[in-house]
UniProtKB/TrEMBL annotation:
Annotated ranges, domain tRNA(Ile)-lysidine/2-thiocytidine synthase N-terminal: 30-207
UniProt note: domains: The N-terminal region contains the highly conserved SGGXDS motif, predicted to be a P-loop motif involved in ATP binding.
Listed SUPFAM superfamilies: Adenine nucleotide alpha hydrolases-like (SSF52402)
Binding site for ATP: S34, G35, G36, G37, D38, S39
Gene this chain is encoded by: tilS
Protein name: tRNA(Ile)-lysidine synthase
EC number: 6.3.4.19
Family: Belongs to the tRNA(Ile)-lysidine synthase family.
Length: 424
């Protein structure tokens, strides 16, 4: 296995990892390892760090069951962990039904399995082995799709999913640097044969980058560009949050924007504010497509009601309203106390066994002849959660008929509108 002790030659790699773990080192640390060169280098480096600093290190690998040879690769990880006296856990995924985006489904499953494992182990920080090459390849793929500032921004060094924070400490380190480290330490790694399949966009971009390197478009250079774009993104997000405090307000789970100051904002800031409103309301993980947002922006100029990603945008006097589209939740049901529509939690008194939560709808709103006094759009009120017993309305806590019930907007909290809520 070779000498794994830290040397001066290893210090830039070690410093990169420690820089993301300090100033307060975790007592427990998780590490996701596939057996490839990037994750094996991270494993070897982190094993030395953990041993020297008394950190409990645990390793997880995910077998997606998508190709042969994976078990041999994971056995390589297991052998290394056994030699280092590190616990190694393997999770298997067989959840793909053959439809949709395979890589996207596998990625979502991988994070789900790692999250579940980490939470069970009491681990709140997991390291991932993404490198400067991954940054560069991602930037090139998104550039080919005509991405904007957000799409071209660097991967986040830290990202929280549930109770687990994922950290990518090697984003400034190249794949070649890690291979040099592995070779010098005589540490084996596995090469995924799919990395030679140019039908995958990432592999094609990897080949292209090899040709562009001599022209100055190296992984390091493009990774630096991605970092610059992230700084630009962060600045735009800060300005968007400031704009939200000036032009937006939250009312019963809807967003109201004051039209005159909203339309005076720079186009990119008004676009971002609209996207944040939509994400806060629909709880989506990804923003709507730029083309869809552009169509909404055109409708705003014409004061025309429009829908996008399960949200409706309408106008009243000097205000624009963004709220849940009724058709998006018309058939959504949940038990009381469960999360309804991924955002609302409705709870109340007594025996709830025969009750369910569903949209207020036209029938429910008809029982509220004074709904105009609430100052909210009619369509917004119809999409609010209410408590039903069969076809009988029991309570509508959001619209002023609580009868001992309460409704709270929880779930995913978009950062901009979470900040607004904190000021109420």
């Amino acid at each position: 296995m070779g000498d794994l002790r830290l040397t001066m030659d290893d210090s830039p790699l070690t410093d990169a990892i420690l820089g993301q773990l300090q100033p307060e080192l975790p007592e427990k640390l998780g590490l996701a390892v596939s057996g490839g060169g990037d994750s094996m280098a991270l494993l070897a480096l982190t094993a030395d760090i953990a041993r020297a600093r008394g950190i409990s290190l645990s390793v997880i690998s995910v077998d997606h069951g998508l190709r042969s040879g994976v078990r041999e690769e994971l056995a390589l990880v297991g052998d290394f962990c056994a030699a280092q006296q590190l616990p190694h856990h393997v999770e298997s995924w067989q959840g793909w039904d053959g439809t949709g985006n395979l890589q996207g489904a596998a990625r979502a499953a991988r994070y789900h399995l790692i999250n579940r494992w980490a939470e069970a182990q009491g681990i709140d920080t997991v390291l991932l082995g993404h490198t400067a090459d991954d940054q560069a390849e991602t930037l090139m793929m998104r550039l080919a799709r005509g991405a904007g500032v957000d799409g071209l921004s660097a991967m986040a060094v830290r990202r929280r999913r549930g109770a687990v924070t994922y950290v990518r400490p090697l984003l400034d380190i190249t794949r070649a640097e890690l291979r040099d480290y592995l070779k010098a330490r005589h540490i084996r790694w596995a090469d995924d044969p799919s990395n030679e399949d140019t039908s995958f966009a990432r592999v094609a971009m990897r080949r292209a980058l090899a040709q562009l390197g001599p022209l100055g478009l190296s992984a390091k250079t493009l990774s630096g560009v991605a970092q610059n774009m992230r700084q630009a993104r962060d600045a735009l997000e800060a300005q968007t949050q400031t704009a939200a405090q000036d032009v937006a307000s939250v009312h019963a789970g809807t967003v109201r924007l004051d039209l005159q100051p909203y339309e005076a904002l720079p186009a990119e800031i008004s676009r971002r504010l609209l996207v944040h409103a939509i994400l806060w309301i629909n709880g989506g993980a990804y923003p709507p497509r730029r083309g869809g947002v552009s169509a909404v922006q055109a409708a705003i100029k014409e004061r025309r009601t429009v829908t996008l990603d399960g949200c409706q945008i309408s106008f009243s006097g000097d205000h624009m309203w963004v709220y849940r589209e009724l058709n998006a939740v018309r058939d959504t049901r949940s038990a009381p106390d469960d999360l309804w529509d991924g955002r609302w939690r409705v709870s109340g008194p007594g025996d709830t066994a025969q009750l369910h939560v569903a949209a207020l709808g036209e029938a429910g709103l008809a029982t509220r002849p004074d709904w105009r006094d609430l100052g909210l759009p009619r369509d917004a009120l119809m999409s609010m959660p209410a408590v039903w017993r069969g076809q009988e309305l029991v309570a509508a806590p959001v619209v002023g008929a609580p009868d001992g019930w309460k409704a709270e907007a929880t779930g995913a909290q978009d950062s901009v509108f979470a900040a607004l809520l904190s000021r109420q």
